[in-house]
Design brief:
The complex is a heterodimer of chains A (226) and B (221). Chain A has 226 residues and is of the alpha+beta class. Chain A has eleven helices and four strands; from the N terminus they run βαβαββααααααααα. The chains are: A alpha+beta (226), B alpha+beta (221).
């Protein structure tokens, strides 16, 4: 069995996508923590010269980068406990929703990194995204992938845990359980899945980190909230 | 044989990616031109989230987003594979597809903007071309190796339309002396019969995009 290593960063939701996929499939791996606030390791720069980012999965010495690309690689290499449906059309739909999350990421960056009018706009757009996710992606299903979690749920994992940390750091609640009851149910159910529950960063530490990042990203802006 | 329909707009690079994939695999399909200024109820039904083309409709079921459509086509029609068979090589291909998609806005920006914004687009697109040439293409003839694959299709659309934009804004970026291997790749890519025979009319493109640029720049005054 070839060696599997994962270069990650403890508060990163992208790192956690890979951890969850590996754990769900029972793949053993060595975890290497990157000291990101300080210096990027030589190993990281060698494995990911284009983006210089984690996560990096290293399988038999060969690096794979970009969390969503890594998920597809894991799915193909370890087919047990599939994270994507068998049917090609259902797979296309799953990929569509994963892509949708990626396309809307700038909205959430704006929510976290701006203040004032720009942030107001981001909040409205974020709520539109939640509405679409609830009505069109989740529907009446327990998870995005059906009765058990799959790649789409893993891709949106940040929303189930990290987003409330962002809300706390910003000081604004956007994902109101009364406005988005089905999404809220999904969040609670997702966090209860054993592999997920046992593989999340400490909540208080994550919030502290979010607050630190928020301050760093907005200190140059006028009227920023603490 | 189940029915394949493709909804598109003649000047869309995203449409052409799908056309190339279908043609390379010898898949018959019906093409439906959409009027994007007056979107059809059918388009809105097939793509309610984005309301965009291309949409592939297979046996009545719609698939949206060009690269997702291509992954679907690859799975349903495995002949003339567009992705390598080895999972690691597939991961590399998907990495480059993601990379060019992420960096594409700079290429459109060169066409859409002026002044400082355009200067930035010039810088960004040059940096992207350098990375793509050195780390994506390397010494290969095509991104897919000896024959074209998914990365060639993804980037080929961006590069071809970029060529039209370069002509309109009179700024040359993807030049032989600056990017010798990438330039050669583009020439080779556009010589592949399926690609060569499936490109929108260049004069029509120049005319359309010139008009659109004038309209959008005057609207933003």
């Amino acid at each position: 069995m070839e060696e599997v290593k994962l270069l990650g960063f403890w508060p990163s939701p992208f790192s956690h996508r890979v951890i969850w996929a590996l754990k769900l499939k029972g793949v053993k791996y060595d975890y290497l923590e990157e000291d990101l606030p300080n210096e990027k390791s030589q190993l990281l720069l060698q494995y990911n010269p284009v983006h210089k980012k984690i996560p990096v999965l290293v399988h038999g010495g060969k690096p794979i980068v970009e969390s969503l690309v890594i998920l597809e690689y894991i799915e193909e290499t370890w087919p047990e406990n599939p994270l994507l449906p068998k049917d090609a059309y259902a797979r296309a739909l799953a990929r569509f929703w994963i892509q949708f999350g990626l396309q809307k990421a700038p909205i959430f960056h704006a929510f976290f990194q701006t203040t004032g009018e720009e942030q107001e706009k981001a909040i409205k757009e974020a709520q539109e995204v939640f509405k679409i996710l609830e009505e069109k992606a989740l529907g009446n299903k327990k998870f995005f992938s059906g009765d058990s979690i799959g790649m789409v749920d893993i891709a949106y994992g940040w929303l189930a845990y990290w987003f409330s940390g962002m809300e706390e750091a910003v000081g604004v609640k956007v994902l109101n359980p009364r406005t988005f009851p089905r999404l809220d149910s999904w969040i609670q159910d997702f966090k209860e899945v054993p592999v997920i529950k046992e593989n999340l960063p400490d909540y208080a530490n994550m919030v502290t980190y979010m607050k630190f990042m928020r301050e760093k990203l907005t200190s140059h802006l006028p009227c920023h909230n603490h | 044989m189940a029915e394949v329909k493709l909804h598109g707009r003649w000047y869309s690079p995203f449409l052409y990616r799908v056309i190339w994939a279908l043609k390379l695999k010898g898949i018959s399909y019906e093409y439906i031109e959409e009027d994007l200024s007056n979107k059809s109820p059918l388009l809105l039904q097939y793509n309610p989230v984005h309301k965009k083309i291309p949409v592939l409709v297979h046996s009545g079921k719609p698939i949206c987003e060009s690269m997702i459509i291509i992954e679907y086509i690859e799975e349903k029609w495995p002949q003339t594979p567009l992705l390598p068979s080895d999972p690691y090589e597939r991961a590399k291909a998907r990495f480059w597809v993601k990379f060019v998609e992420e960096k594409a806005p700079a290429f459109w920006s060169l066409y859409r903007s002026t002044g400082e914004e355009q200067k930035k687009a010039l810088k960004d697109s040059s940096e992207t071309l350098k990375i793509v040439e050195e780390q994506g293409l390397g010494e290969k003839k095509f991104f897919g190796g000896d024959s074209i694959g998914i990365v060639d299709i993804a980037f080929g659309a961006i590069a071809h339309w970029f060529g039209v934009f370069e002509e309109i804004v009179e700024v040359k970026v993807l030049e032989a002396h600056a990017f010798p291997r990438l330039h050669a790749w583009k020439v080779n890519f556009e010589e592949v019969p399926v690609i060569k025979e499936n490109l929108p009319d260049r004069d029509k493109m120049l005319d359309y995009f010139k008009k659109r640029r004038i309209e959008s720049l005057s609207a933003s005054q």
